[in-house]
Amino acid sequence: MPTEYLRYDKMVENALRGVVREALRQAGERGLPGNHHFYLTFRTNDAGVQIPDYLRDQYPSEMTIVLQYQFYGLEVEEDKFGVTLSFNNSHERLIVPFAAITTFADPSVNFALQFQPLGGQDGPVGVDETEEDEVAEVADEDTAKTGGTPKPADDAKMGQVVALDAFRKK
């Protein structure tokens, strides 16, 4: 009979995904206070991810969205969230399961979380196996109007990313 262990690494990761869920829930109910804004990177090829085909073609492995000034209809459920964003002056609805999120950051308070894929998910197993991040960012009115991308936050302002690999049994 194999020995079973409590999977604290998975428990901690699930709890941290709950932090993302709660932050999004509060933003959906009350808006984003002060300078808060969220960068969310997710795997576009995971089950349950619903994005327009042209975005999936443009970002076949990962995509980063920014929730700051122009986002609409943010709805948060237990296992996923939905939001409408503007891409090249066209509003598009995205549905993203929390299991597909690889990174969550709020640069305004130097907070960031990095996640590993949950068991049974399609897509890369680790960070080394992912393609170079491709980014689709809509952060402010000027960016949406020009079709450009916002200036990335300074690395020093991004804060420390919490990686759970150090706690995983090898």
Automatic annotation (TrEMBL):
Alphabetical list of InterPro entries matching this protein: SspB (IPR007481), SspB-like_sf (IPR036760)
Recorded superkingdom: Bacteria
Comp. bias regions, Acidic residues: 128-141
Region (Disordered): 122-158
Protein name listed in UniProt: Stringent starvation protein B
